[in-house]
Amino acid sequence: YKVLSLYGKNLVLAWPDQNVKSISDDSIEIKVEVKKPYILASNDWKKQPTIVNVKDVEIGGNKVVIAAGPCAVESEEQVLTTAKAVKRAGASLLRGGAYKPRTSPYSFQGLGDEGVKILRRVGDEVGLPIVTEIMDTRDSPIFKQYVDMIQIGARNAQNFSLLKEVGQLGKPVLLKRGMGNTVEEWLQAAEYILLEGNGNVVLCERGIRTFERSTRFTLDIGGMVAAKLMTHLPICADPSHPAGRRELVHSLALAAVAAGADMLLIEVHPTPEKALSDAEQQLTLESFEVLVNRIRDLTRALGRDV
Amino acid sequence: YKVLSLYGKNLVLAWPDQNVKSISDDSIEIKVEVKKPYILASNDWKKQPTIVNVKDVEIGGNKVVIAAGPCAVESEEQVLTTAKAVKRAGASLLRGGAYKPRTSPYSFQGLGDEGVKILRRVGDEVGLPIVTEIMDTRDSPIFKQYVDMIQIGARNAQNFSLLKEVGQLGKPVLLKRGMGNTVEEWLQAAEYILLEGNGNVVLCERGIRTFERSTRFTLDIGGMVAAKLMTHLPICADPSHPAGRRELVHSLALAAVAAGADMLLIEVHPTPEKALSDAEQQLTLESFEVLVNRIRDLTRALGRDV
Amino acid sequence: YKVLSLYGKNLVLAWPDQNVKSISDDSIEIKVEVKKPYILASNDWKKQPTIVNVKDVEIGGNKVVIAAGPCAVESEEQVLTTAKAVKRAGASLLRGGAYKPRTSPYSFQGLGDEGVKILRRVGDEVGLPIVTEIMDTRDSPIFKQYVDMIQIGARNAQNFSLLKEVGQLGKPVLLKRGMGNTVEEWLQAAEYILLEGNGNVVLCERGIRTFERSTRFTLDIGGMVAAKLMTHLPICADPSHPAGRRELVHSLALAAVAAGADMLLIEVHPTPEKALSDAEQQLTLESFEVLVNRIRDLTRALGRDV
Amino acid sequence: YKVLSLYGKNLVLAWPDQNVKSISDDSIEIKVEVKKPYILASNDWKKQPTIVNVKDVEIGGNKVVIAAGPCAVESEEQVLTTAKAVKRAGASLLRGGAYKPRTSPYSFQGLGDEGVKILRRVGDEVGLPIVTEIMDTRDSPIFKQYVDMIQIGARNAQNFSLLKEVGQLGKPVLLKRGMGNTVEEWLQAAEYILLEGNGNVVLCERGIRTFERSTRFTLDIGGMVAAKLMTHLPICADPSHPAGRRELVHSLALAAVAAGADMLLIEVHPTPEKALSDAEQQLTLESFEVLVNRIRDLTRALGRDV
Q1: Structure confidence by residue, pLDDT tens digits, A159-175
Q2: Theoretical Cys-Cys bridge with B14: which of A172, B20, B178, C87, CB 3.0 to 4.6 Å?
Q3: Which chain C residue lies closest to D186 (C-alpha atoms)?
Q4: Are A279 and A252 in contact (CB under 8 A)?
Q5: Nearest to B210 among A218, A252, A260 (CB)
Q6: Strand C9-14 to C2-6 pairing
Q7: Is C32 helix (H, G, I), strand (E, B) or coil?
Q8: Chain C residues close to A216, C-beta within 8 Å
Q9: What is the pLDDT of residue D2?
Q10: What is d(CA C182, CA C208) in angstroms, rounded to the nearest whole number?
Q11: Are the CB atoms for C237 and C63 separated by under 8 Å?
């Protein structure tokens, strides 16, 4: 069994083969029996929705939070231009890749530490908390120092060492679903983080692998809705990666919000056609502004806000 | 090559190995070269969106059309109760299965001809055009006589004999995408119908087969949006079958409308728990009314209407 | 409930909601309760493997049966050349498509009745029983008169009207698995045929739809093996369609035989590069002969024969 | 561009946007232009098959190499019993998991360092080189010291930091395909390792995610064959994980060998029903011996050996 503190409570978790009643400790407020492959991430245990705070941004409340920014950090100027524009349009978080998991080793691999520092400076200047992806357990010191919300990418969605590491860091985590993972596996990945005592997890649906070829991945809106019924954690949707091309991003973003997403993660670039990665799917600054206005109209009809 | 009349125009279609210029005929208004696996269903040829009329109901215009009714026609009373309620709530079409394609031969196989006639009587009484599924080319006379819109189900999505037959009948067709078919194959299935001179086709996304198990099928919102960019035909979404359970239907329906669906096909039953098929996913009459109100709010935010 | 004669026995089948004990009839030899979505196709009921006889060819016994021939019947000469060569190499059945289910209406649609008659004449001349695909219930008279084994293609794998029709014809059926169907759905499709009293069904795995793109479909060897553990019916593999290109056909055919396939269905053409369909995946006559010799060596190692 | 030594040659690799001709260096024997997402792993560049040596075991030659052992190292006795039995039956490598990537954090997580050391001691005692999985870049020292062949598991198949790390270690790598990865992505993962100058990579197919549920994963024999046509690297198949249950393992193993696999990775346990992980799919010692004998017969028919 394990004793941990989560959401301000002291818990004891009894493993499937243990009897929770035999564990006694005065400081324990909740006793939880692990009766399925995950429990901390489920709403069997915690009924009320969790709100994850990234600095002053609340994810999981009434507002739909938009994180926007370039696929990859390419230069301070590029990030600054983008950050100012997305903030003005209505984004609450700045995203950008510094360590980039690229399918081919010959693709642009990102600026690494330098990219993280650029994001930090721009985030501070513009006034947006930053979210960026970690790829290696050995990089945790720099993420601890500089980053507000740590992203686990789809390709590391079952990198359990990395999940434990970000669990221990305690910072808010944006956990993408693996392109070959079921909803249940996604929740179990979150469980790895929660089990380290870090409850600040936002789940992010970004498309799964299917036979369909007119889109890059298949955004699984149904899986996202099913997950919402199973967990207390907030849910984000990334419409950019499944779209694979700009023309589809608006519709997928609107669909995700209508289905109940608490957050959107959108790729925006000042000059997408010159981007060093994902050139086809990044929105222009203008198109992003139009999208935020459409989302704002939609959320009002749904009784929410941006 | 083939000469046909479609959308009020006389066309000549030149096969890939033919030169359209060599075909001369004074009555021909448009010459179309088949340069990809489908052309009549694409918006390369016909730019303006097609509106399909089912009696006085326009599909593909500004209004989002809702077709609702039971999975299977079980009795006249069941259909009448449902029809009155869904009409009052805002549905424009009455759906119901008479010939039922059931995976197991031991499942309820539908009332057949008698089911079609019940639908017809109820549709006339309540004032809703009816849509129901055809499974066999030999049944075309009864569909010609009684049915307003003929549905091709997912399991017959590449039953090319049946596609040609409904093409020749000339009535409006609701063409479901096969659970194992790409968007491109779906459009080619529509092409079979159009090539018989029947342009009254509405495409219906109803979920594809993927590895995900928390939903019955994966509603491919991205594929639906991709299709909209490729075709002039209206697009419908069926949120009931991919959901597989009631709790997911509202969110999937809202997502589909937000993504641009022109029509929804929703299963509704007065007492879903007693239904002879799809008991898990049919909405109650009350839940359907709530859903229509939510859709109405959403469409207004999008500049459309129900 | 239903009373039927199958494999020389009089059966009574009790539906899930019926008590088989209450049904009494002196002529009934076996009482079967339908406790899962299929029973007649399962080996819960019939333990010993079924042998399907197509004229003098036994499918499901110790010999691995090879059916070979062109994707499509194009001319009598083409079929005759192929038939002579495949028979000499070791094939026991002649395959060829007359009615062709083509994804695009602009692809070669087959010779229809005339194609069936060509196959019949060539089969008789060369001394090979013939197998060809039916697409429409209305074509059953010509299949009854001319064809030895009727194929249900992947696109009609859940065309239940057609399954019932070939069930009533009583002739041997080669039932392909649909590209989007589970093994359990495939067995239920067979159940539709058996329930009409026709037990002469061979199941054919031909590849399923997955995200992988280096092959046309994913030959599901595991699903084929799982099916063998669930049914008494013989199992065939079609290596040509999942391969999608000639270079892969030999290896897939050998894999299927090693995994326990009772039959192979292979596309062979005298001049594949000039074929009117599936030009990429048909074997040359020479390559087919090499393959049969490789299969012969393999079957001996497995204690079987060709 | 990058200069590296691989397979005993000095290479220069020119990135897609570079002209290889402008790079001059007397020590360079081969100039390679990166014209697709991978080149070092492809047989465009290196025609002859690569043989990977793990101590005295040759993978990729005429013999089919069998690696066998328990899913997880549980105790020295368990591993020793298994190792002796699998060696006697014909295995050439000992496998066993010490660091275990488990979907649920509540499943047995492996013995870690201690497990690696047990494997080492048993391997030395019995005389079998050992293969075990790495999960974290921080563990590379222990793998460098103790392990003969390092496995990258399916869940880390696109953990690019880990791929680079094992590339730098220089030891033989068994690289599993991710359950959601295409063949092309798998080859690009290998490229990450080769690009660090480590050419000792064996590719391992272990099943992909599809809609089929009668097996745990779908063993993609076609993808394996397609890969063999694209690469010079040896290919391994893991029949245990896609099977998910013992009864299917023999047939899948035989199919993989018939299709051309150079190596098999098989889970074997002295008492599978008591195993701490994958209890359903591990073979007993007796069943493994039967399987090796069947494989031996098969390989002889194919002109190979075990």
Answers
A1: 999 999 999 999 999 99
A2: B20
A3: C212
A4: no
A5: A218
A6: antiparallel
A7: strand
A8: none
A9: 87
A10: 9
A11: no
State the number of CA atoms in the 13 A half-sphere of D264 facing the CB: 36
Q: How many CB atoms lie within 10 A of CB B271?
A: 12
- Residue C301 sits at the chain D interface (C-beta within 8 Å): yes
Task: Give whole-number Cα distances, C148 to A84, A109, A248, D180, in Å.
Answer: 73, 61, 50, 42
- Shortest Cα–Cα distance, C100 to chain D (Å): 25
Spell out the domains of chain A, with CATH numbers in brackets. 1-35 (no CATH), 38-301 (3.20.20.70)
Alpha-carbon distance of D101 to C201, in angstroms, equals 43
Q: What's the CA gap between D39 and D32, in Å, rounded? A: 8
**CA atoms within a 13 Å half-sphere pointing along the CA-CB vector of C132:** 35
Residue that the structure tokens 């036979």 belong to? A211
Within 13 Å and on the Cβ side, how many CA atoms surround B119? 34
By DSSP bridging, strand B2-6 and strand A173-176 are: unpaired
Compare all CA atoms of chain D with the CA of A188 and give the residue at the minimum distance. Answer: D104
Query: Is-contact B207 B244, C-beta < 8 A?
Result: no
**D133-153 pLDDT tens trace:** 999 999 999 999 999 999 999
Question: Which spans in chain C are helix H?
Answer: 76-89, 113-126, 140-146, 160-169, 183-194, 221-230, 240-243, 249-258, 285-301
Amino acid present at D149: M
Q: Nearest C-alpha of chain A: how many angstroms from B247?
A: 9
pLDDT in tens, D223-254: 999 999 999 999 999 999 999 999 999 999 99
Binding partners of B (≥3 Cβ pairs within 8 A): A, C, D
* Residue numbers in D near B211 (CB within 8 A): 209-211
With a CB cutoff of 8 Å and minimum separation 6, the contacts of C17 are none
Rounded to 5 degrees, what are φ and ψ at A221? -60, -40
Residues of C in contact with B37 (CB under 8 A): 103-104, 106-107
Rounded distance between C-alpha atoms, residue A261 and residue A60, angstroms? 9
Report d(CA B33, CA B28) in Å as an integer: 14
